[in-house]
Structure formats: structure tokens, C-alpha cells
Write a structure and sequence with these properties.
The structure holds 2 protein chains of 2 kinds. By secondary structure, chain A is an alpha/beta fold. Helix content of chain A is about 35%, strand content about 25%.
Chain lengths: ~240, ~300
Amino acid sequence: MLTVNDLHASYGAIKALHGVSLEVEEGELVALLGTNGAGKSTTLKSISGVLRPLAGTVRFLGDEITGRKPEAIVKKGLSLVPEGRDIFGSLTVAENLRLGAFSSYERNRYQEDLEEQFALFPILKERFNQPGGQLSGGEQQQLAIARALMSRPKLLMLDEPSLGLSPALVDQIFALIETLRDRGTTILLVEQNAERALEIADRAYVLKNGLIKFSGTPQQLESELDLASVYFGGEEGMGEVTV
Amino acid sequence: MNEFIINTLSLGSLYALIALGLVFVYGILKLVNFAYGEYIMTAGYGLFLLGTYTPLPWWSVMLLSVALAALMSYLTELIAFRPVRTKSLTAMLVTSFAVSVLLQNAALLFISPRSRAVQLPAAFNQSVALLGVTTPLRNLLTIGTTVALLVGLTLLMKYTVLGIAMRAASDKFSTTRLMGVPANLVISVAFIISGLLAGVVSVFWVGRSASVDPLIGFTPLLIAFIATVIGGMRSLVGAVAGGYVYGLLFNVLSITLPASVINYRDAFMFLIVILFLLLRPEGLIRGSYTEERVG
């Protein structure tokens, strides 16, 4: 469904990705793990068109989408929930959701999709006419995901959805991601919370310094790789892993 | 007193429209568009050329001139600003100076450096009596048109998807694109609305002096700056509030200053502006715009 091949990207003079390749099949939940600065968010930004990659290709549903405008990529069914939630604080929950449906708006479907989000996120129905900025962190994350779902994405990319949330809310968000997966949404999940992500992922990639250091199932990852080494530096355990 | 109220509302309305046109583009692009005054000039020359050389009725001359300013604004966005948009904000700012100078000189070269008389319908300057005050009809038209435009724009921004998208874009531009909102669409619409407002301003601005010259855009641009310093650059409401407060301060100064210093009215006005910059640099209304750059 999504094929990323040899992606290079940089922020000005600083190179962030040195040839990232990954794949997501339809119906899969794929986790992309790594430390701060490993290039996880950069990878998602390059896929979604927010950042123009220097080299490499991104193919989605058989079409090359490398370097296309973000608005065109959303329209194709690839939706990103950005890091830090990035909801529109001065807009109401209703307006946030309406914008989420911008690329795929159909009058008859809209109400249906709204009801669906209310079923998944009951709090949003309660807060429907409140400004997004007045929501708590957990509620904002729910709004950000619901907003992305309003575009009926074929592939949903989540960038650190658990960041800055209390443990109880983290549980809630991961349970929700599982629910979405079980309903058939294809998901590419970027997380620092590797253990939690591996509990629900079908497959995982580990990024380090802008390169994929590992790919495989969570079981393989746990047996072949000392997770701590991925997260707390240290090249031990990384050297022998071949990609 | 009634006369003071009507004069203040009329002046404030005009200033509010002027400031609003500038902030519409600033809100989305974070660009202070120095060419804004030249959109006002464009409509002014539209009034002059169409009014003098065509047999069109006055109302269609006005509508066409307003449309001309909107078109000019859109064209400058398309030709001048769009190619440098992904570069630095400084590049955009310098571009806006260039567009301003270019349009001014085009008017100097192809029309005339001297001011041209603009014919407006006599009714425009006729005095009418209202609430025991005789005032030019123009003042009432300014107030009425402004109220209608503000109501219309509020409805647009609040209840249409395009309006919601524009508010979102002024908050977080790149996230708005992730919703599928085309960047070019919101930016073009911002420039068109800015141009429309400049056109309407032009009708009333030119209406006061009944003439147009290549430098006519300078004073309105200055007014827009002052109004946004007072009201705040970061929200549309701030711009409108700033326009009205500016109009009020201006008229209060006109009345209260003794005759010996009335000529220094502008100096007093700038003093107030300096006080605003020192004591409340964000203006009366803080607003919600972020400083995120569009690129």
C-alpha cells in the first residue's frame, strides 16, 4: 500500500534521513520506533508532503507521490496526525472536524462520519461547540485523531500520539489505536513508547540516525535486539543486526 | 454630540476597512503587504478612467473599480508573491516594496504624476439631516457599507468551510494543508478579499478629495499601520477595533486640542502610537494568530 524507498531528507544543512526504506501493507499496523532525533517525524513529514525529500521515492496505492503537496496527498487517502496534536485552538471542535473532512466532503456522508467519531470519542460530542484550545491534552489528542479520520483515510499515520499524556490516557489512546486497527484501518504508528507500540504492532521498524536499523515482527525485535540499546545509545546489539 | 458620533463612526469605519484589508493577508502569510496602498490607487484610477472615458453609470463604475482592485491584488499574489513564498519572509517583504514602487511608477508613467479629478455622483456629497445633524451622505454610506461588509465577512469566516479554513490557516498553516486545504486557495482568497476591501476604501477615500494621484495609497497604508498598532495585528477583530479607536482618538484630538497646536495633531497621534508600542505592543486585542511562517 505504502512503499518508501531510499528516502533522504534534511532541514537546511542538517541531514535527517540517510536513505529510509519501509513498507506498509493494507490492514497492517506498523510501528516506527526510535529515539528523539532518529528521524521518525521527519519520515512521516516527508511521506505526507510537509517536507520535500531530497531523494528517494514514496509510492502510495501504486502512484508515486514523492514531493507532492500535502493537500494532494491527503486527498489520495493518506492522513497524518501530526506530533503535538496540532489542533486548531481557536476553532471549535465542530470546526476542527469539519476541516478534517475538507478533502472528502460529501453532504450525506458527513453526518454519518460525525456520528462514527462520536461513538469512538464520546467526549467530542460533549465538547462539540467548545474551542479546541479549551480541551485537555487527552481530549485534544482524541480530536486530532478524529479530525484525521473525518477524511476517511486509507492509511492513517500517527506521530507520537501518547506524547505528554498521563499513563491512564496513554492506555486509552493505545486501546483506541487497536480498535481502529481491528476495524480495518491501516496504521503507521510513530512512537517513543516502544514497549506499548510493540504490544499492538504487526511489524516494526527501528530508526537510528536517519537509517533503518531493524525491521521485523515485534517477537523478532525482542529476541534479536536489546530494546534498551536502541533507546539509550550504545552500539552493542545494533552491529550484528542486518536489515 | 450627535455630529461627533456620526463623524467618528464614519471615520472609524473607513479606518477599520483599511486596517482589515491589510490584516487579512497578514493573518495568513504573516506578510505586511506594502503594496496594499497601491490596490487603493488602482481602484482610484479605475474610478477616474471608467468615469471619465466610458459612458457607464456611476454604480457600475464603482463596482468595476472595486473589482479591479481585487484583480490587481490577486495578480500581484500570482505573479510577484507566489514565486517567493517558499523563500524567506524577508524576500516577501522586499517583493511587496517592489510591487508598491512598480505600481506607483506605472501610474506616474502611463497616466500622470499630477492628480486627476474623479467624478462621483453629486448625491455622494449631498448633505442630509439625521438626528438633528447635517452630514454628507458619504459619511452615512461609509458607515452603512462598513457594517454590511463586516457582517458579510463575519458570516463568511464563521459559517463557510472556506472561512473556517482561512481561520485555521492563520492559526496553523501547514496543519491546515494536512486537512487537504490547498495553500494557494486560502492565500489567493486572502489577497482577493484584501483587494476588495482596498477597492471599497478607495471609493470613499477618493470620494473625500474627488481626485486620485499616484501616491494616494501612502496615507491609507500609514493609517492601516497605526490602526493595527492600536488594535492588534493578530486578529481581524483587532484590526477593526483599532480602526474605530483610531478614528475616535483622531476626532477627540481635533476637538480638544487648542487652535494653536491643532496643526500638530499628527504629532499627538504618533505620541499615542508610541505609548501603545511601549505599554501594549500586542495591541488592544491579543488575538490567536501564531507566528508560524508559511512556506
